[in-house]
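Escalation from tier 1.

The customer reports that the assembly of two entities below gives different structure tokens on two consecutive runs. Tier 1 could not reproduce it. I'm attaching the input and our single run for tier 2 to review.
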Amino acid sequence: DQQVKQNSPSLSVQEGRISILNCDYTNSMFDYFLWYKKYPAEGPTFLISISSIKDKNEDGRFTVFLNKSAKHLSLHIVPSQPGDSAVYFCAANFGNEKLTFGTGTRLTIIP
Amino acid sequence: KAGVTQTPRYLIKTRGQQVTLSCSPISGHRSVSWYQQTPGQGLQFLFEYFSETQRNKGNFPGRFSGRQFSNSRSEMNVSTLELGDSALYLCASHYQGGTDTQYFGPGTRLTVL
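Tier 1 run:
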């Protein structure tokens, strides 16, 4: 039972444009959401998080939006840069230590 | 501040053997979580340790075990290895747990032949 889903396995975006990565979840008990970026042969790197009491959190080029009624979150990267090419994972938890991850979306930024 | 370190980075074992992986968290962090990443199942939570005690556990068989030492370093052990245990094993360090951000190490790539 995949409680956190990333339905797009891959996404290609032109450099300088906006990248939008999507994530859906089924468990309404999740109250904290995170995005991680992963390069090959490295561990995931934390990008940004959002608590369920908020609907938006921004950090530089990265913004995460949370729509609790739709059980949907998205990560916006603007402007997209070549170094953003990586696999992006969304993750969720109940405020404890167990993160439930999505299956990842491979983002490719085209120069 | 040094990041999370994991040793070894790569490991090749045969079926039936056992393996021990090590993780050193960020200095000052007391909580260590372990995850398994496979192409088919993605990233899955194994267990989490805090102050030398297992605090959370995922849905893995008893062949997977771990421990944490007084300096917060952690080890995980897999006994009676199966082909399906081939995976990237990731360790994450966090200050105390809860919603503290988890910082991941580079992982140990285990191949079971």
